[in-house]
Amino acid sequence: MARRNDVRPLVRLRSTAGTGYTYVTRKNRRNDPERLSLRKFDPVLREHVEFREQR
Questions:
Q1: What is the reported pLDDT for 26?
Q2: What is the rounded distance in angstroms from the CA atom of residue 29 to the CA atom of residue 44?
Q3: Domains in the chain, ordered, with CATH?
Q4: E strand residue ranges, 1-55
Q5: Residue 41's closest CA among 13, 10, 11?
Q6: Would you say 25 and 13 are in contact if contact means Cβ atoms under 8 Å apart?
Q7: Phi/psi zone of residue 43: left (φ > 0), alpha (ψ -120 to 50 degrees), beta?
Q8: What is the mean pLDDT of the chain?
Q9: How close are the terminal C-alpha atoms of the chain, in Å?
Q10: Nearest alpha carbon to residue 50 among 10, 14, 11
Q11: Which residues are paired to 38 by β-bridges?
Q12: With pLDDT > 90 as the criterion, what percentage of the chain qualifies?
């Protein structure tokens, strides 16, 4: 059975520190209709920074 991409699309999370590092994840569009923002590890800076959904 194939996945339904309309409910859980792939999103790219880009570092707000300006390093250009990205994570790719899925989000539930019904629960989080606005842009996703998470604190994750940036290996370029070697510290945790905020990552925001890129469109």
A1: 94
A2: 30
A3: 10-54 (2.20.28.120)
A4: 10-15, 22-26, 37-42, 47-54
A5: 13
A6: yes
A7: alpha
A8: 92
A9: 28
A10: 14
A11: 51
A12: 84
3-21 pLDDT, tens per residue? 667 789 999 999 999 999 9
What letter would DSSP give residue 19?
Answer: S
Note the residue count of the chain: 55
Tokens of 11: 């999103």
Q: Any residues with CB less than 8 A from the CB of 39 and at least 6 apart, and which?
A: 48, 49, 50, 51
- Torsion, CA 41, CA 44, CA 24, CA 51, rounded to 10: 60
Q: Which of 26, 28, 29, 52 is nearest to 39 (CA)?
A: 52
